[in-house]
Amino acid sequence: MSSNVGLSTPRGSGTSGYVQRNLSNLHPRETFAPYPTSELKHRQRQPNAEILEHDRLRQIEVQVFELRDKLEDEGVDEEEIEAQTEGLRRKLVAEGEAGKGKEMGRGKGLKVHQVHELAKAKIEESERLRRALGIREDYEEGGHWKKGEERLREGLEKERRAKG
Q1: Average pLDDT for residues 111-135, to the nearest whole number?
Q2: Which parts of 9-142 fold into alpha helices (H)?
Q3: Which of 19, 16, 14, 15 is nearest to 4 (CA)?
Q4: What is the mean pLDDT of the chain?
Q5: What's the burial of 43, exposed, middle or buried (CB within 10 Å: 0-12/13-18/19+)?
Q6: By the 8 A CB rule, do 158 and 164 touch?
Q7: How far apart are CA 150 and CA 152, in angstroms?
Q8: Is 117 exposed, middle or buried (0-12, 13-18, 19+ CB in 10 A)?
Q9: What DSSP element (H or E) covers 163?
């Protein structure tokens, strides 16, 4: 071996003695934050209104189909089935328009795959919490620190002007 690198002899080490560079050793970057910190601010995911409406109408149709299936099993004639299902559909659509999403129960009972319903419930929960705690709508997280820094800078500038 040359230059005091590696083993003095590969005998008994179970290796060939070949020396390789450690490629898993990571060197620190020159810049501490390679990404802009202003983009890291959390933004609530906005639900898609079309998907929410589609899911609401789908739930209505599921209930209508269950009624139709039950009536067909009971042997009710087709005209009566159509009349009852159409009446139920109109009633559920009217209730949905009046309540507009309150049937979900504030996000409880939602599945993981219902991301738009979960997002809507989270926004409503955040809004209730904001109102309960008396937080302004234009509140920016960490804003009080920025105001303190601005006051400190203004004070330092006044001192410099007074001295100079």
Answers
A1: 88
A2: 49-74, 78-99, 115-133
A3: 19
A4: 82
A5: exposed
A6: no
A7: 5
A8: buried
A9: helix 143-163
Confidence (pTM): 0.50
Closest CA to 117 of 98, 104, 128: 104
Query: In this structure, how many other beta carbons lie within 10 angstroms of the beta carbon of residue 120?
Result: 22
Residue 106's pLDDT is what? 58
The two tokens of residue 144 are 């009080």
Q: How far apart are CA 35 and CA 126, in angstroms?
A: 28
C-alpha torsion 26→32→36→41, nearest 10: 90
* Token output for 104: 């979900």
Apex 5 CA angle, 7 and 13, nearest 5 = 15
Phi and psi at 107, nearest 5°, equal 90, -5
Share of the chain above pLDDT 70, in %: 82
Whether the predicted pLDDT of 38 surpasses 70: no
Angstrom distance (rounded) from CA 136 to CA 112: 31
Ranges 35-39, 54-58, 94-98, 112-116: which has the least confidence: 35-39
